[in-house]
Design brief:
This protein is α+β, with helices and mostly antiparallel strands and 262 residues long. The chain has one domain (2-261). The protein has helices spanning 9-18, 36-41, 65-71, 107-123, 129-133, 137-144, 148-173, 181-199, 201-207, 212-223, 239-261; strands spanning 2-4, 23-27, 48-49, 85-88, 91-92, 95-98. A four-stranded mixed β-sheet has the order 1-2-6-4, covered by helices on one side. Helix 7 packs parallel to helix 10 (212-223) and helix 8 (181-199) runs antiparallel to helix 10. It is globular and about 55 Å long.
């Protein structure tokens, strides 16, 4: 199920700086959440397992089943919205898992995704939005006024955007480091590819062409690339969000969905 992945020199340099002990493995099969038996197989590769768990009171009554499982004491690796490269600190040492779906993507972009994972690991931030919002996830749920799956998608996007505010300064410095220029170029190229789609977001939502949760996901993904965001998403690309995190996100959601309801 798992095979150690070799790293290129630029990616290895990022790992050495941000997450020197992290293991990197290729996964045999794609997944959103690893089946329990396969998640426990990771124990054969590491020194220990430490499943994360959170209080039931942090979840709305209609929370998706997978989110409830993640909050429980079960070892849950990977969640919907995590993308092609997943990292976890529920193992000792931490592990970065590369899904087969990443194959076919340009190699420089794959290398950027791996480097991004190491930078995020080095921040010591939660590995999932539930650890970010904590007991205030129920407040976000009330503010969003959508179904549980849309609330999940928006919460995951908001957390991704907040992480992007922490990481993009590091990404931008790679252009100035001879051993990481290829990573900086990939970061910039990925942002360029998003610019036109992001610029049209407000109009696409107004026309009903794009669901608001999908728009939030795209806008927040663009934050790490330092792309200018249209309203109402531009309010998330601020120092206030970086410093005040979940409280700011909930306030943004309340104001945004009040405006959408008018």
């Amino acid at each position: 199920m798992f095979e150690t992945r070799d790293l290129s020199p630029p990616v290895e340099a990022v790992r050495d700086e941000h997450a020197p002990d992290a293991l990197v493995v290729d996964c045999e099969r794609d997944f959103e959440t690893l089946p329990p038996a396969q998640a426990e197989d990771l124990g054969l590769l590491v020194d220990g397992l430490d499943p994360v768990s959170y209080p039931d009171t942090w979840l709305p009554a209609d929370a998706p089943t997978l989110l409830a499982r993640y909050a429980s004491s079960d070892l849950t690796i990977g969640m919907p919205g995590d993308g092609s490269v997943v990292w976890t600190r529920q193992t000792d040492p931490a592990i970065v898992l590369v899904k087969p779906r990443v194959e076919g993507s340009p190699q420089p972009f794959i290398e950027f995704l791996l480097a991004e994972a190491f930078v995020e690991l080095g921040l010591e931030t939660p590995e999932h939005f539930l650890g970010f919002f904590e007991e205030r996830y129920v407040d976000l749920d009330r503010a969003v006024e959508r179904g549980p799956n849309s609330t999940y998608q928006i919460a995951a996007a908001l957390y991704d955007g907040w992480l992007g505010l922490q990481t993009r300064e590091t990404f931008a410095t790679w252009h100035d480091q001879a051993d990481r220029t290829v990573l900086g170029d990939s970061w910039q190229d990925a942002g360029t590819r998003l610019e036109d789609r992001v610029a049209e977001l407000s109009r696409a939502v107004a026309r009903g062409d794009t669901d608001f949760a999908d728009a939030t996901e795209l806008a927040c993904a663009a934050i790490k690339h330092a792309i200018e965001l249209p309203a109402p998403f531009g309010a998330l690309d601020t120092d206030a969000y970086r410093h005040h995190g979940p409280e700011y996100a909930i306030s943004w959601a309340e104001k945004t969905f009040d405006a959408l309801a008018e």
